[in-house]
Amino acid sequence: MKVKGVEALLRARFAFVFVVAAALVVGACGQQAKPGGSGSPAASPAGGEKPQAGGTLTFIVNAEPPSFDGHRETTFALLHPIAPHYSLLYKFDPNDLTKVIPDVADGNPAVSADKMTVTIKLRQDVKFHDGTQMTSEDVKATYDKIITPNTAAGQSSPRAGAYAVVSAVNAPDKFTIEFKLKYPSASFLTNLASPWNFIYSAAKLKADPRWYEKNIMGTGPFTYVSNTKGQDWVAKKNAAYFGKDKDGTALPYLDGYKALIITDATAEVNAVRSKQAMIEFRGFTPQQRDDLSRALPNDLAIQEAPWICVNYVVPNTKVKPFDDARVRQALTLAVDRYAGSEALSKTTIVKDVGGLMRPKGPFAMSDTDLAKIRGFGKDAKAAKDEAKKLLADAGVPNLSFKFLNRNITTPYEPVAVYLIDQWKQVGITATHDVKETSAYQADLRSGNFQVALDFNCDFLDEPDLQLAKFWSASKAGKGLNFAYYDDDELDKMIDAQSRETDPAKRLKLVGDIEKYAMDTKAYQYPVLWWYRIIPYLNVVRGWKIGSNHYTNQDLTTVWLAKK
Amino acid sequence: MIPTLVGVAVLTFVVMRLVPGDIVALRYAGSSVPQDVIDRERALLGLDKPLWAQFVDWMTQLAHLDFGQSLWTGRGIVDEIWTRLPLSLELAVIATLFAVVFALPLGVVAAVKQDTWADYAIRVFSVGGLAMPSFWIGIMLVLGTITFFGWAPPLVFTPITEDPIANLSQLILPAVSVGYRYSAVSMRMTRSTVLEVLREDYVRTARAKGLSESLVVVRHALRNALLPVVTVISLEFAFLIGGLVVTEQVFNLNGIGKLLVDAVAHRDYPLIQALVLLLASVFVLVNFVVDLIYMVLDPRIRYA
């Protein structure tokens, strides 16, 4: 094994991860003042409060998880109730979201000099809920399932592509795991903290490759108690959990939790208002936040943060006249995003103007550079005039089309209504074609639309994730790129940034991609980035909002203040 | 009965396949999931088979009383339904009791006291029930109890056998919001049929014989007026089993209506087919029971 210069390399590699995460969170976690009432927004014990043990956290999940297998699913509805049953190799520090910290790993990874081998020592005190010890065989089986799922046995792994750089996963001894890479990767280490990568038991997977689709058995801080479909998910504290806080107190603090499945927005608000639920971890609208603030002035805390979720305007480049870059450029030029932000952020969950990477995030363009991109300048009148000229040049001064959207009120419908109004101001007539999600998805995937409002959410500010939709539609972007273009030049640019391990150089490459994809070619472009708002009962402590609704959900450090 | 259910089964299968949408694409909506994963998942669920093959598979399963598994959760269809059925049944029963308790006496009073203040008050009450949607009444009830009492119905279903108080705490408000409209329909039907019967010759004859007014109304008028009322009440009961989608959402009730809507949204074909069959069976069964009640109420009715 060619592991050498471990300390220096480790620092260099993890420094990058930390810088990414740090910028992400510093930019993201601008906690907002809560309405009246008590104390600071209850986030972490860092505020000087000593965590209190006991109690049951009751929270809302506004969708039902399909299967229980985190490797197979992609919805937060699985993570919120199920993540606390499992551990990861690495995770984001719940007390300081600027850090990636070991979970079942025993320290930081060692990276070989050629950056092609990553070696990780494992903790030796980790036990599954059935009492068996976790070893490297379990971690290997876990990552084999994620990276090379046994499709013949019915396993499925939608994130296998994120680990395409891995050539082999080895278990050289009982408590060491080794990843062999095909080439140095900028995002691999960060991906080891993916919230979906639950550590599974090799024995369970061997007995039944699909066992985890219907069963729970992890090494996490909470053990499974019950699940009533469509109603709730109940868990209790894992007394044998290996984690301890900085004072050496055993984690988790909670005795257990109950996740209530509530799919109706009004019922969600009523559940918090009547104090039957303490928190919902995905997010509420500004209106719901204000309703709760008025109803519970002394019992509510609020945290807010920019969100790694965004809506894209996607012209179908296979359909005329959207094969003409001038028409696509006109569509983005017509939209005054800054006025949209001002208006829409009062009513729905969008706020910041940004490029392909989250605004204020570690890969975000500077405001100056962003303003140079068509559609992102501050002079709305000049942009609209240019849009009209481009449409006239393209021979479609009175362009009309159907604008495909899904029937979700927050934020799809208000965003689409705003776009349609903006387009109208340059002579474009867009008909709002609202479909329920399944039919909308079918149209997107079959290319049966002219222009659509697409969306994307990720767990991390990472160009490999946010640019996944920009690969050529017939190659790596198949099933992801709904603008349906093929562009070898753009593919090369995306590939180059992925292999670039120097953060500064990578940032420059990502900026070039944004300029090319949003402006020069105007293939598809963001409208407004989402904004996450979490109003919750202020007895909940030790939870800190992040820039996504996927990470920081194992509830190890969450506790309940006794009133 | 059997031909009706087979017809419903075929129709449901065909109609759902005509509706655009794909459970796998929906499952991975908003995520960067490659097409080959989508295709593999579809094959895993058997959705890549020709329609006729899917239909044959399903009918074969049905013949063996095997409803299969939910495409969304992978759980058995019977389990999925059984989890929700007790709540829906209980809610339907409570709402029906609520409706009957109010509808029959008030309907009779309104008929007997036609064009008096009592009749007007009852008619205003019933028109209110018809005019206000049940879910709106439900929202107002929840907001009212939260605002004035800081209380809302429990969000988790507790079987009546385990804790009757907790059970009724959860179901009483939804039952009232649904039962009010239900009772309004039944009340108006009772009033009009009783009014009609009160003008019949045999009622006049009964009165001429010197029977007391209460005996005339209860024994001679009401019994004969009940046939259409029973029909309305029974059809409403059947509707309540699966038709309370919005009310279930307002009160976060884990019932059959919400399950059906979720199944349609997910394009969970086996679950939709099973639920539609279940609801069709309930209607058929209720109609059968109504026919039997007709025989009890009117001895002249005989079925071959």
Written description of the protein model:
The complex is a heterodimer of chains A (563) and B (304). Chain A has 563 residues and is an alpha+beta fold. Chain A is built from 16 helices and 18 strands. Chain A has helices at residues 6-28, 76-82, 136-147, 188-191, 202-207, 265-273, 286-295, 325-333, 337-344, 367-371, 380-393, 412-424, 437-446, 463-466, 488-499, 503-520; strands at residues 56-61, 90-92, 100-102, 110-111, 117-121, 166-173, 176-181, 222-228, 232-237, 256-261, 279-280, 300-315, 400-406, 429-435, 451-457, 525-537, 540-541, 559-560. In chain A, the strands form five sheets. In chain A, strands 8-9-10-1-11 form a five-stranded mixed β-sheet, with helices on both faces. In chain A, helix 8 (325-333) packs antiparallel against helix 11 and helix 15 packs antiparallel against helix 16. The radius of gyration of chain A is 24 Å and the shape is globular. Chain A starts with 5 loop residues before the first helix and ends with a strand. Chain B is an all-alpha fold. Helix content of chain B is 76%, strand content 0%. Chain B has helices at 2-18, 23-27, 35-44, 51-63, 77-112, 117-131, 134-149, 164-198, 201-208, 213-242, 245-250, 256-266, 269-297. Chain B starts with a helix and ends in a 7-residue tail after the last helix. The mean pLDDT of chain B is 90. At the A-B interface, helix 6, helix 13 and strand 15 of A face helix 2, helix 3, helix 5, helix 7 and helix 12 of B.
Question: Secondary structure elements and their pairing?
Answer:
The complex is a heterodimer of chains A (563) and B (304).
Chain A: H1 6-28, E1 56-61, H2 76-82, E2 90-92, E3 100-102, E4 110-111, E5 117-121, H3 136-147, E6 166-173, E7 176-181, H4 188-191, H5 202-207, E8 222-228, E9 232-237, E10 256-261, H6 265-273, E11 279-280, H7 286-295, E12 300-315, H8 325-333, H9 337-344, H10 367-371, H11 380-393, E13 400-406, H12 412-424, E14 429-435, H13 437-446, E15 451-457, H14 463-466, H15 488-499, H16 503-520, E16 525-537, E17 540-541, E18 559-560
Parallel strand pairs in A: 1-10, 1-11, 13-14, 13-15
Antiparallel strand pairs in A: 2-3, 4-5, 5-7, 6-7, 8-9, 9-10, 12-15, 12-16, 17-18
Chain B: H1 2-18, H2 23-27, H3 35-44, H4 51-63, H5 77-112, H6 117-131, H7 134-149, H8 164-198, H9 201-208, H10 213-242, H11 245-250, H12 256-266, H13 269-297
Helix pairs in contact in B: 1-13, 5-6, 5-8, 5-10, 6-8, 7-8, 8-10, 9-10, 10-13, 12-13
